[in-house]
Amino acid sequence: MKFGTGQSTPRVEDARLLTGQGRYTDDMARPGMLYGTTLRSPHAHAAISSIDISAALEVPGVVAVYTHADIAGYGPIPCLVPLSGEVKTPRTLLAGDRVRFVGDGVAFVVAETREAARAGAEAIWVEYEELPAVASIAAAIAPDAPKIWPQAASNSLFDWQVGNPDAVAEALAKAAHVTRLRIIQNRVAPTSMEVRAALGEFDAEAGFTLTTGSQGVASMRRELSKVILKVPEDQVRIITHDVGGGFGMKSFIYPEYALVLHAARQLGKPVKWTGERSDAFQTDTHGRAMESEAALALDAEGRILALKVETWSDLGAYQAQFGPAIQTMAGGRIMGGVYRIPAIQNLVHGVVTNTTPVDAYRGAGRPESAYIMERLIEAAAREIGLGVDEIRAKNLLTPAELPHANGLGLTFDIGNFPAVLERAKQVADWAGFPARKAAAAARGKRLGRGMAYYVEIAGGGGTEEHADVKVAADGRIEMAVGTQSNGQGHETAYGQVLAARLGVPLEQIRIVQGDTARMEVGGGTGGSRSMAFGGGAVLQCADDMIARGTALAEADLGGDVDYGDGLFKARGSNATLSWAELASRHPGALDGRSRYTTKESKPAPTFPNGCHIAEVELDPDTGVIAVTRYALVDDFGVLVNPMLVEGQIHGGIAQGLGQAVLENIVYDDAGQLLTGSFMDYGIPRADQMPPAVTFETLNTPSPTNPLGVKGCGEAGTIGAMPSVINAIIDALDGKQVEMPATPEKLWRLANAA
Amino acid sequence: MQIKLSINGQAHDVDVPAASLLVEVLRDTLALTGTHIGCDTSQCGACNVLVDGVAVKSCTMLAAQAEGAAITTIEGLGSPEALHPMQQAFREAHGLQCGFCTPGMVMAGLEIVRKHGTRLTPELVTHELEGNLCRCTGYLNIVKAIVAGAAGMEAANA
């Protein structure tokens, strides 16, 4: 059976994942393997006076205990963002003289069993001298706040600004109407169902091998080898098998990844660390965590004149690998979306607090920017008496205005935003809302409707992508790529791209990922970039294969050869050669590496965009809400596998909805994490989803990549946060509410005088 | 302590600490790693197995308590070449993404069929999935898969 692109081909991954044959990191076992566990700080901010490990070493089964003194020779986990400024916030593998958040690692215990490792950790005695902590943005920027990094002038480490402040100030002063909102975007936990784990191995000749669930092995190896372990890259191999969800969070190096390697080298045995859910809540990078003051200036007819946003972005205790980039380089330039806005100013302050470091989480800055703009525009519509659809239609860029430079460094290339908006209204049965609202009112419920028009910048990373192919003598094709599926289904999607280009069955193809020994280059998965860049590499590799095969076949068949349907055909005779025949005649000659992008030739990003419409029914007696209808229309460019795209949309909406109504990481004033388990931190369950999601696309192919794709992995989350909250605000007749909109908050608002 | 377990029709004698949880013995002692651990607090259902046909979170049960029972793990349903109708339905409905919660979801689907038969509605399945967490799919396709999987089980038995 042949499969092409554009078809909802069932996934090749599923047979193994459905039968227990998946291989996640903790599934790995090795003979003689030891188990590691991390002793974590119970304090948000404290000086370490002393650590006594003697009792731990007496615990039966404990093999070794490492503290900072043992691993001080390794480098800290690097912050890779240039704007982190003058003040460095190095996060060493284990805390030295100071801990800076609850969960900061203090000691690493290695034992023959998991239980012995835990018992050993409990037997360690650490003397702490508690220091005053700053557990919120407000506390961190207060005058005379205790400083987390003494060498810094304050806890606000950097300011970043784009746009035209003078023009914005002038427009705000003159505008007929200015809408102002203070907007909080709650701190959330990415919460992959598979908690992080790492298996470290060491061989005197081959060096280190780390097995862990990552979002790309190549970039992780670069930093781990050069910066942390301080060995040549070829002395480190990283392997990623199946990954149980990542959402940005698994892009990064965590201390345990180096600690298992250190222990494996010291002890001469494999060492595995598997986090528990409480480790995940404390130490997986968190997302969002910001507060903004936003103002939208409009003329008397509701045309936008200017947008001003000032954000305090909570970075956590250490500037994480990409942490300072999220609200700035990653998401700060898309502020204002695809509206016609003559002047924009976006100012971001990066603030450290005694909390878990904050980094990329599904959308990484793009949802945050869209959330601010979409809250503002609906508030403005309400204030000046326009429909939320009308104000958007009035201000959305039209196709005739594209390409459009947004004044913040981005140029929107292609799309038909007004048409997407109109189609979304039809799909959502916009006209039927008043009747549904009346019916809900008759049942004592308040129905609200919210809209969001989002645009994402996708594939912005410039790292090069290669594809490397091997053709076996039986004709089977194995292609290695430099991105990493975390559940998206890349083996299927890349396989479809390759199968379609070559005209061979998908069953003949195997896509390989996650091993630096097979593919040492690649930017991994993030920013919805895999299909745009990785797909380009796959196509290039397919074309190069056909060229090599054609040359070999022409030599063998003695004349011109055409390729089609998986066969090299001699022109003028009926002689043919298959991939299997060519590969067995010329072993290795069909194999090769193709390079799609290079460091020098960064392709332009893509701009997936779309319109979400949510309807939410609020029970004023209980404050409980139900999302009763959800519809969206997206422009994703070309779809490789519509079924996989829809799956990304469903999951993305669930995460956006979760942030909007359920999820919240809470610290008390002392910096204690109050939401450290699924008993305190709610992620959506099945009955919290809308009963159905009506999803359509209205696509304009992206001109920036040969497949014409735009990327869809983050879009659902970006649209869901504002559309759901806007619907709730509508149900409250315009009363503003911050995320998470819990029943208690909503009951109070619904029943306030 | 010595425990005799019957798992997927096979007898196993294991020597494990008395406090060992069933999920720990399945994964660490017997290398049946299809059963997953997703939380420390019995909330996520990734560790669901069938004990005498009833779905149980195997992190809530001591291995010793399972002695004498017939245990079915995800490895004991279908094979990649011949999926169980419930597994097949998850594949066809795109009811899984990262696959980590999936074994527990398949077991939850079988439990719903045990309790309610093979003719299910999306509303019922949505309600019955209260004990299982998924972070990738948004559940809609899982619900669809379980409804279809139940119908597939009826067809297979017809």
TrEMBL record, chain A:
Domain Aldehyde oxidase/xanthine dehydrogenase a/b hammerhead: 19-132
Superkingdom to which the source organism belongs: Bacteria
GO molecular function: iron ion binding; oxidoreductase activity
Cited InterPro entries: Ald_Oxase/Xan_DH_a/b, Ald_Oxase/Xan_DH_a/b_sf, Ald_Oxase/xanthine_DH-like, AldOxase/xan_DH_MoCoBD1, AldOxase/xan_DH_MoCoBD2, AldOxase/xan_DH_Mopterin-bd_sf
Keyword Isomerase in record: no
Entry keyword annotation includes Plastid: no
Pfam family, one: MoCoBD_1
Region span, Disordered: 1-20
Regions of compositional bias (Polar residues) in chain numbering: 1-10
Keywords: Molybdenum, Oxidoreductase
Name the UniProt record assigns to this protein: Carbon monoxide dehydrogenase
Species of the source: Sandarakinorhabdus cyanobacteriorum
TrEMBL record, chain B:
Listed SUPFAM superfamilies: 2Fe-2S ferredoxin-like (SSF54292), CO dehydrogenase ISP C-domain like (SSF47741)
Keyword annotations: 2Fe-2S, Iron, Iron-sulfur, Metal-binding, Oxidoreductase
Sections of the chain in a coiled coil: none
GO molecular function: 2 iron, 2 sulfur cluster binding; metal ion binding; oxidoreductase activity
Lineage top rank: taxon: Bacteria
Residues of the 2Fe-2S ferredoxin-type domain: 1-77
Protein name: Carbon monoxide dehydrogenase
